[in-house]
Amino acid sequence: MQEFYNWLLGKGKMENTAKTYIRAVENFLKWYQESYDREFDGKVLPLHIRNYRSFLMTVKKLNAKTINNNLSAIKSYCNFLVEKGIIETNPVLDDYFIDVQEPGISPARLETRDFNKLEEAVVHYGSPRDVAIFYTLAYTGVRVSELCNIRLNDIVKDELIIYYGKGGKQRKIPLNRTVREAIDNWLKERGKYKYSHLDYLFISERGKLDRSTVYRIIKEYCRIAKIEPVGPHQLRHYFCKRALEKGFTITEVAALAGHSKITTTEREKILE
């Protein structure tokens, strides 16, 4: 663990954070040994992550935020193993994290009037990146985890391909002119960012964009627009609502949104 601890410090983690990560990984390795009756051999599979998350949820009964913190620590450990050449890819997928309602985020639906005010605030005051993030969320209905994982080559002509959606499902989402232009404008500015060498579409000054940054971005523009705070999930609901209003069938909207069950999309319609 000392080598992993030094690696964390080298990545800019504070000492307390690094120690917390070490404890989380040690707990995972203890669970691994007890669950599979063998010593950890360095190989971490998605199956292990799913089973450990289930253990944290059903046996330990931890809250969503604590579970996500544990997964973040294990994800960092797996990045460490990848760099050492022990494993090829990181098995901790963003889909394994639990969506947590951010403090101050309203659970209410986003009404058209508030959407228009939010859109104006983003376009008026936002950077090309933030505008592209907003329109991608609002006009494609992607989940925040999917947004953060979009890679540059996932956009083919006027389609966005989600390769690893919820449940590992792949789907194609058409991009309208507004989204396409917003992304094009962002790509013109993207090269100015420190981490532009990464192949993720959306990046920040600290590297790959993460979900907490997306929540913070949307929340800030809600403040500027003087509306109740909403999050990416409300923009996803808005996409489904608008698609149904425009005449798309429930089956079509379910496919675009990546709902595994049509009843989920029907619930969107009923709750509007």
Automatic annotation (TrEMBL):
Superkingdom of origin organism: Bacteria
Family: Belongs to the 'phage' integrase family.
Protein name per the record: Integrase
One MF annotation (Gene Ontology) recorded for this entry: DNA binding
Annotated PROSITE patterns: CB, TYR_RECOMBINASE
Keywords: DNA integration, DNA recombination, DNA-binding
Pfam families: Phage_int_SAM_4, Phage_integrase
Organism: Caldicellulosiruptor owensensis
Signal peptide residue numbers: none
Keyword Protein biosynthesis: no
One GO BP: DNA recombination
